[in-house]
Amino acid sequence: MKYFFSAGEYSGDLNASALIQALRSQDPAARIWGMGGPLMAAAGAEILFDPTAESTIGFWEAARKFFLFKRYLDDITCFLKENRPDVVVWVDFGGFNVLLAERAAALSIPVVCVFPPSAWAYGKGRAVRLARYVTHLASVLPFEANFYRSYNVKKVTYVGHPLVDRVKPRQTPEEWRTAHGVSAEEKVILLMPGSRKQEVQTLLPVMLEAAAEVAAEHQGLRFMLPVAPTIDPGSIQAILDSYPGVKVETKDREETYDLMAAADLGILASGTATLEAALLGLPIIVTYRVAKISAFLYRTLMNKERQSQPLMVSLPNFIKGRVVVPELIQDELTPARLASEIRSFLAEPERGAAIRQELQGIREILGPPGVMDRIATIVRGEAEQQRKKTPQ
Looking at the predicted structure, is the pLDDT value of residue 303 above 50? Predict the structure, then answer.
């Protein structure tokens, strides 16, 4: 059977590649095309376009790349007409993929959606639109499934979150700390400014300024930064060199789960990494900043029932339904404020212990192992139904 996958950023590329591998185990003769990155290509997809280096966060930031993605959309539509895949698989990247789903539906090609937009937090109009064009939604969050069912999406299946299969350290915290010469008295603070160039340029200088301020006051702090594969290590080093007041040890992305399990505190960009950290019980400070016009639009589109609640951007807080890990958002994110939060964790070990306790139940909420196999079964099933309906 023939499949078309659409992913637009690193996390989508990663999840799509895992799904492609699971799908190939069920359908060894599968023909797979897609828009995505090097991980999808390594999994065996024929890549038409790679937009992962162009990924942004925020409405205004995305709008500036409108014409580039309009060209991708038009070219993919032509490809779908000519090659007629049995199913289109939407993996995250909702702003683009909802438009692609509309084009696919107009061609009578079914669409399976994985990682839909967070319409349960803001923009209910997205849910209405998605319901028109998506054939089957594979939901990774239980409350997300119930939300989309209420908007009459044709089929919704709660499959669990792929991170329950992926987030597995290779070493115990004790083994990792011993191997890296970290003494029992030292504190490891993890810096993760995101997988997009825009995030790194915005967030890393704030993290480093705050880290330098705290490092000048405290002995025995080890700052470590795993470099995302989408980021040029040279650009990271250039920023680090601009802040000689703090020593930061860069690490390979493959070490991230070991780092998270062994660290004492994480300072993270909002995104998938916050949920990875939660699964490993790491106390974190979440940082988030986009253009002011994007922030205004987020607040305007926020669903009414959430407008009376504290503004939240991180997945652990959404899943728990309340603020469990601290978030510094927009104007709240300053070096002084971030330094103050770091000091609080250093001075009050019980605060980190309380957060670790709060995070313990998240893995159970995210469902049992075998997530990608369950999603692959859904994708293959929709392709088989389409093949039966369409003369070959």
Answer: no
